[in-house]
Amino acid sequence: PSPPPQRGGEPVRFVSDTDCCSGATLLLEANLFLKGEHVGFCRVLATDRCREMASKFVATHSLEKCFDAPLVAFLMKAEADSDIFPVMLCADLHDLRGRHADGEF
User: Fold this and answer.
1) Which residues pair with 88 in a beta bridge?
2) Are strands 37-45 and 87-92 parallel, antiparallel or unpaired?
3) What are the φ/ψ torsions at residue 64 (nearest 5 degrees)?
4) How far does CA 52 lie from the centroid of its chain?
């Protein structure tokens, strides 16, 4: 079992339990903030689904469910638009929510 995620100190990194040591290719690493405060990192491996990793990130950090769909859309767009991996991303969840509501992704 993985150690419990922590806020502050070391960033939380998410990797599916089954792929933790498999050497799966890292596709995305998103450095996420909420209104300027660092929340953590969300990593998506080639064997992961963006939806599952975003939901896990939101739940682990006790964030409101309203951030789930925008984060999923952001990760999926980044993956679809990229030709070279891994992709390093940085975003504010509040900003993502607004951009998602505006239909940007």
Assistant:
1) 29
2) unpaired
3) -65, 145
4) 10
Digit-coded pLDDT (tens) for 43-83: 999 999 999 999 999 999 999 999 999 999 999 999 999 99
Whether the CB-CB separation of 11 and 37 falls below 8 Å is answered with no
Residues 30 and 18: their CA atoms lie apart, in Å, by: 20
Position 10 pLDDT exceeds 50: no
The identity of residue 39, as a single letter, is V
CB 91 within 8 A of CB 67: no
**Percentage with pLDDT > 70 across the chain:** 79
The answer to whether 30 and 48 are in contact (CB under 8 A) is no
- CA neighbor of 75 nearest in space, from 85, 62, 60: 85
Alpha-carbon distance of 80 to 88, in angstroms, equals 14
